[in-house]
Amino acid sequence: MAKHAFLSASASHRWINCPPSAKLCEGIKDESSHYAQEGTDCHELCAYLVEMALGRDVEDPTENLTYYSGEMQNCAEEYRDYVLEQFERSKKFCSDPMVFIEQRLDFSRWVENGFGTGDCVIIADEVLHIIDYKHGLGVLVESEGNSQMMCYALGALEAFDDLYDISTIEMTIFQQRRENVSTSSIRKDDLLKWAEDVLKPTAALAYEGKGEFKAGDHCQFCKVKATCRKRAETNLELVKYNFEMPATLDDFEIAAILPRIDQLITWGNDIKNYTLTQAQSGTHYDGFKIVEGRSNRKYTDDDAVAEAVTTG
Predict the structure, then answer these.
(1) Residues of the chain where predicted confidence (pLDDT) is lower than 50
(2) If you compute the radius of gyration of the chain from its CA atoms, what whole number of angstroms results?
(3) Which residue from 10, 84, 153, 228 puts its CA 20 to 30 A from 222's CA?
(4) Which of 261, 52, 14, 23 is nearest to 148 (CA)?
(5) What is the DSSP letter of 31?
């Protein structure tokens, strides 16, 4: 079986908003980075510390972690303490709650071949609690409306709903390096309604490569974000609106543009990074060449740069 689901929970924010992006990204190799490996290392450490605290026979992975550090140890210990607190809390309304760490969760009733791995699942009468550890610093992750967490919750319901009388699902993002512990809750009936009304039909479109392309914040982790035509069209529309105005913009118009500026800048940087990578592999772009700077490689061509700046 594949290590990652085609329609993964972790990428669900993207393929729910842009169903055909799933097929577009299929077959494109994931780019590894030290950030990703650091996150993997910390997840392994987190799992070990929680399981050890629960009295389970587990092997200390520390000496095999590439990016182990004091900060990582502290983050993992804070996560362990939080999980143990929530486990003790669950005992107040359930005599025999269970804790599962790095639990495979299958939500294929709604998403074909859909599965994922839940960092921590606490099952008890009344409340099912999904806890997900995030090690990244770059993006603040919220639990409210988080489709990854909701997919995990569906998988946990599939596995344990017959064993416990669950009415509410709590979802927590534990992001210690951003001092972010974000918790939200959803009624079981509301989650199942979302699964039937939104997740299932959208996943069916995505699985077949159908539906409409849509640009937005979900593009951030898309493998084709630099070359996606829909994203380019969306951002170029903003450029057109901005630079074709016959006179100066008033405050109302500026306020309308401001929310899109960061998205436009991000898109431009994604294009630059993509073309630089391609050029280093031998692709030639007319009017540009790679030169060595004091610290970074970059494209340079005085006339082309001047033209790009003046035309927007």
Answers:
(1) 1-3, 246, 294-299, 301-302, 304-312
(2) 23
(3) 153
(4) 14
(5) P
